[in-house]
Amino acid sequence: MSMLINGARPIEVLLVEDCVEEAEMTMEALRDGRVRNRIHWVEDGEEALTFLRRQGRHSAAPRPDLVLLDLRLPRMSGHEVLAEIKQHADWRRIPVVIMTSSDDEKDILNAYDHHANCYVTKPVDMEKFLEVIRSIEDFWLAIVQLPAA
């Protein structure tokens, strides 16, 4: 069963992840899921903002319905990206799910202080990692009512 926003279009997901293996596993899990989505992958924080601003090679980028954001990124941290997203009038309603290996209380508090919609610690075990991705998909893409652009 394929689910669409307002029955009209697939859900646009922006994945911000510098680890190729984790990005590939995440994209594969989301592609195999129940929800019809399009995944756009960028490898660092600066490219995430370029995507959101629709600049350069991302000039035709869609507005994401959901952002999956790692904290530990090159060039610009996930915390900085989150702060930019939540301060921007056109982006602040986009749900941001922090997906990171850090379980440091400072990182968790900082993420929620900058209005992250949820914080998920990535499991090391691959099967558990895939389970987490499927849970995120079930909740954020199948259950939650996402705002229209």
Architecture overview:
With 149 residues, this protein is α/β, with parallel strands linked by helices. The protein has a single domain (11-124, 137-143), classed as Response regulator (Rossmann fold, 3-Layer(aba) Sandwich), CATH 3.40.50. It contains 5 helices and 5 strands, in the order βαβαβαβαβα. The protein has a 5-stranded parallel beta sheet, with helices on both faces. Helix 4 links the parallel strand 4 and strand 5. Residues 1-6 have low confidence and may be disordered.
Essential attributes:
149 residues, alpha/beta, Rossmann fold, 5 helices, disordered N terminus
- Biggest sheet strand line-up: 2-1-3-4-5
- Report the major sheet: 5 strands, parallel
State the CATH architecture. 3-Layer(aba) Sandwich
CATH class: Alpha Beta
H/E series: EHEHEHEHEH
Number of helices: 5
The amount of beta strand, in percent, is: 15-25%
Mean pLDDT: 90
Stretches with pLDDT under 50, minimum 5 residues: 1-6
Q: Look at the helices and sheets and give the structural class.
A: alpha/beta
Looking at CATH, the homologous superfamily is: Response regulator
Q: In the CATH scheme, what's the topology name?
A: Rossmann fold
- The first-to-last residue Cα distance is 23 Å
**What is the CA-based Rg, rounded?**
14 Å
The dominant shape is globular
Number of domains: 1
